[in-house]
């Protein structure tokens, strides 16, 4: 169970860093709780702004002082005066409820200013969808492959616009080959793992049913079994922020193959260096990689070690990585850098297997590198 707790904490940290829930977070300070950075978020379902992760001393000051509470303000973007509303202080948060519902199609900015001027303020831009805006659709589901390993760790669901929170586990299910729902296949978290724009959802398969030796797997077995077929089903009635259903539900067919018990090995990747100053860099992987992490944990550095800015796209069932620099390549040597958080579909990383006892083996703390050369123009 210790391993499971460590996994959950690490997964939340990684998801929130790229897009778990979407709060904006301040650096750790005297105003942050013992280990949780302060964050500000807009709760569209209940029409409320939350500032969480504040220290007990900060919350005590807010409870006693109305002027302190007004450091949390919401205003139309560009306006000098904040909107009217009511502040409340709970044991764990400061909240603000607008006196009147926020208007659809209008841009607002919510901000919280700390008493300590050295701590950067929290802010978030808010826009309420207009009722006549297009209905939400599912734009992608990752992994895109149909054949997936028995120890598959997660799905990513991409939406065209935000949908209501708190609906995930009632709107999403996995059916076996007979059409029967799998009982409790997901790790059901109170804080759903949305990105900052609220359009990408991370759904984790229950790791207790993946890792060998854990009680859930021993009691009820794995979620997936090699050789069987399953269907991931997303309910069309999942409401958007204006309570309209999705354009359509989605069904993804899955064929399960043997579990993946190999670590990703960057040394086995094929590197296709740019053929000209305006050509892309491409990598070919021998297996599908985690889509979100492949877009974040693989990057390019120039000869001075500086990150090269550009855009990344994945294709061929997440086995092909393509990088197009923002500016044309300059002749010289470059490095492809791979952060250790990179994962394959089973959660295996270059430094460790997901199904391993990390309490006994310390993962390597390193960044893997591959080099390539860009030739001078005309050569």
TrEMBL record:
<keyword id="KW-0732">Signal</keyword>
<feature type="compositionally biased region" description="Basic and acidic residues">
    <location>
        <begin position="349"/>
        <end position="368"/>
    </location>
</feature>
<feature type="signal peptide">
    <location>
        <begin position="1"/>
        <end position="17"/>
    </location>
</feature>
<feature type="region of interest" description="Disordered">
    <location>
        <begin position="347"/>
        <end position="379"/>
    </location>
</feature>
<protein>
    <recommendedName>
        <fullName>SbsA Ig-like domain-containing protein</fullName>
    </recommendedName>
</protein>
